[in-house]
Every structure is written in structure tokens, then in C-alpha cells.
Amino acid sequence: MIGVTSPWLWYGTRATAVVGLVLLTASAILGIFTNARLGWKLWPRWATQEVHRRSSILALVFITIHIATTVFDSYVPVHLAAAVVPGASPYQRWSVALGTVAFDLLLTVLISSLLRSRIKIEWWRALHYLTYLAAPVAVLHVLLLGTDAKKGSHWLLAVLGVCVAAATGAFCLRVLRTLKLRGLRTAPPQRLPGRPRTRSR
Ligand code: HEM
To answer: Pocket around ligand 1: residues whose beta carbon is below 6 Å from it?
Structure first.
């Protein structure tokens, strides 16, 4: 809390939050596509990977502005520490803490990606999976704390619904693809049609 208040800061908090959430969803879906090695003729794999990277960074920029406008606006007592320390906010302690946990998880993913060439690939992958935890935690934060969500604004619930449905759909496709690939790998090799192996006399 710094000591300035204006409805514009509050609008800024809400607008950047929603844009950040949509970008985060897009980035998560593209990440799943990258991991599944999906690519098409007109949209190659490297393009998916590149847009995934850039949308993640942009999402974090918007979420950081969302947090900064919250902290800057003295209308609600949310201190800077609440950005990274869960439970540090005297205002709506646990609903804000959910946002903090989601932000900490995303920061961990970002930092591990920046250090990717210096850490083991297994570590990087395990840390990257934290995104799957950050997403539902962020959704709970939005539902419990967002003015628009609490007053049941149809547009926000629609945006949230589309984000959750799209991310869940991509995740399920990914799981199905992995199971299918595993099934193919463990299936016994099929005998090719053609000449029989033993000669008949
Ligand atoms: C990944 C991290 C986060 C995401 C994706 C996120 C996203 C959102 C969204 C979408 C809303 C609803 C806005 C609306 O109803 O129009 C919201 C509300 C809010 N968030 Fe976050 N947030 C995150 C982290 C944080 C953190 C760390 C803080 C505090 C330091 C915070 C403080 C708030 C506050 C105070 C509100 C209520 C704003 C209002 O009056 O409607 N958020 N957040």
C-alpha cells in the first residue's frame, strides 16, 4: 500500500488481471501443444514454441501490473510483501494468498526456464509442470476475490469458463495422446503379411 487511490487504478487492476489470465491460458495451451510435438504445414512446431514463450512473458507482465496497481492503490491494504509471501495481506488474506501462490509458482517456472541450459532437463520439466498447479489456484483466486466474479458478471464468468474449458480440453488431449503413444510402444510387433516364416513341404 503506497498512499494513492483512484477508480482508474482499480479498473487497471481488473483489466490487467483479465488480460493476464487470458494470455496465461493461451500460453498454457500452446505449451501443451509444444510438448505434444504438434505442428501443421501452415503452422510449424517452432512457431507454437515461440508464441508460447512470448505469450508467457506477456502474461507475467500483465499479472505484474495487476499486482502493482493493487499494491499502489491505498483503497485496499495490500502490501508489496503480499505479492510473494502468501498470507501477508491483511485484506482478504486467503483469497489474495491464492493469487500469491499462483504468482510464486509462475515465477518459479519463469526462473527455471531462464536457467534451462544450466539445470538438468528433468528438473526443468518437473518445475514446468507447476503450471498445472498454478492454473486452478489462480482460478480460485479469481472466483473468490474478483469484484466481477463475485457480482456474477456474465462476461467475466464467460471468459473464465472459456479459459478453463480450453485449458482442460488441451490437457485431456495431451493425456490421451501420451496414452496412445505408450500403447503403440508396448504393443507386440505385428507380423507383416506376405511369405510364411516356415516352409511347408
Ligand atoms: C497468477 C497470478 C494472478 C492472476 C492470474 C490473477 C488474476 C486475477 C483476476 C482475473 C481477478 C479478477 C478481476 C475481476 O474481477 O475483474 C483478480 C482479482 C484480484 N487480484 Fe489477482 N491475480 C493474480 C495474483 C494476484 C496477487 C499476487 C495479488 C496481490 C498481491 C492479487 C490481487 C488481486 C485483488 C486485490 C483482486 C480483486 C480486484 C477487484 O477488486 O476486483 N492478485 N486477480
So the answer is: 13-14, 17-18, 20-21, 24, 63, 66-67, 70, 76, 78, 82-83, 96, 99-100, 102-103, 106, 138, 141-142, 145-149, 156
Alpha-carbon torsion 4, 5, 9, 14, what sign?
positive
pTM of the model: 0.89
Domain count of the chain? 1
Residue minimizing CA distance to atom 16 of ligand 1: 14
Smallest Cα–Cα separation from 109: which of 126, 97, 96?
126
Query: What is the extent of the structural domain holding 166?
Result: 7-186
Is 197 among the domain residues?
A: no
Kindly tell me if the per-residue pLDDT of 194 is higher than 90. no
- Cβ-in-10-Å burial (0-12, 13-18, 19+) of 10 comes to middle
Residues 3-44 pLDDT 10s: 788 899 999 999 999 999 999 999 999 999 887 766 677 778
User: How does residue 199 score in pLDDT terms, banded at 50, 70 and 90?
Assistant: low
| Ligand 1, atom nearest to 71 Cα | 30
Kindly state whether residue 108 falls inside one of the protein's structural domains.
yes
In a domain, 65, yes or no: yes
- Is 126 part of a structural domain of the chain? yes
Tell the burial category of 144 from Cβ atoms under 10 Å away from its Cβ (0-12, 13-18, 19+). Answer: middle
